Amino acid sequence: MKKKRITYGVSGMMEYQSIIRFGKNTLKVTFTGGSMNAIGVTPATYTTSSFLIQQAIENSNEFKRGRIRIVRTIELDEEIHIERPKPATAIAERRNPAPTPTAEAEKVPEPTEEAEAAEVNAEDGATSEEQPEESAPTAPLTQVEFSCNDDAKDYLEQTFGYVRSKLRNREDIINAGKVHNVEIIFV
Predict the structure, then answer these.
(1) Which residues on adjacent β-strands are paired with residue 41?
(2) Sequence-separated (6 or more) residues with CB below 8 Å from residue 174
(3) Exposed end of the chain (fewer CB within 10 Å): N or C?
């Protein structure tokens, strides 16, 4: 299909601004250059060669009611190329099947001798001193200073997506920071 340059017009107006909705978007189209004199009436016009804008104007209520009309159409030498996403085929799904519970069971590693010995000790109730106790996270805490609760709430809301109403006091704010390895200090 050949690309076209279409001039749209609004009769009886010197200037006209139309807001055209298409989908969730809006398009503001400004028609200019209209005149009324003793010789006759020249409509306010808007010229475009964009296929998308042409479709939006021609599917608008104002065009369908006759307020906006086509004044002239010029066919250009260019071809309209509309890119479309390639459809996802069933072949791609067959190449990458979803993991099944049996496949996950096959991937479970065999228990080693050390793990078996630890299980035997756990069953006997004996504990070895070689096993470390659970410790705090090894990642260092990032320190951030705030002067008031509202600043700290803003930071947590923007950085980590917290809801301000859930952060009611300083304890809640500090605990929310610790979850994300941030030490919140109030000065």
Answers:
(1) 36
(2) 184
(3) C
